[in-house]
Amino acid sequence: MEQRNQPETLRLRSVMPALTTNDLEQSIAWYRDVIGFVVVEEMRREGSLQGAVIQAGQQRFLLARDDFQKGRDRAKGAGFRLYCVTAQDIDQLAQGIKQRGGVLEQEPADQPWGARDFSVVDPDGFKISISTGMSE
Q1: Using one digit for the tens of pLDDT, what is the confidence trace for 68-110?
Q2: Phi/psi at 36 (nearest 5 deg)?
Q3: What is the pTM of this model?
Q4: Residue 1 has pLDDT above 70, yes or no
Q5: 3-class DSSP state of 131
Q6: What does the alpha-carbon distance between residue 84 and residue 50 come to, in Å, rounded to a whole number?
Q7: Alpha helix locations (H) across the chain?
Q8: How far is the CA of 9 from the CAs of 4, 16, 98, in angstroms?
Q9: Domains and CATH numbers, the chain
């Protein structure tokens, strides 16, 4: 049996990015109708929609309404990219996104590290790469 280092290192089971949106309803519609996520939970306060959990496969994102306490014109998504891996056909996924009105930031391309990917930018500027992962 392999001995673990002490102190024990962090071992995560999942990660759920929380993205702040300027227009929550628009963002939900974009992720659902253009990219293909499913809305699995809506969070309401006094009847007002404040957030939603969306899911693609086994992965979840949290979309939250911006309260604009840090200003209405602050940049979101700058210097940040979500790198998502799938076993699905990258070219078919990209084509479907374009057919549903999405705009690709980068068309599907083979990468030198063995992946094939494309990228999109959500309505708030968050960059998302969807990839086959690395070849073995």
Answers
A1: 777 777 777 788 899 999 999 999 999 999 999 999 999 999 9
A2: 110, 20
A3: 0.87
A4: no
A5: strand
A6: 25
A7: 24-29, 90-99
A8: 8, 20, 42
A9: 18-67+77-131 (3.10.180.10)
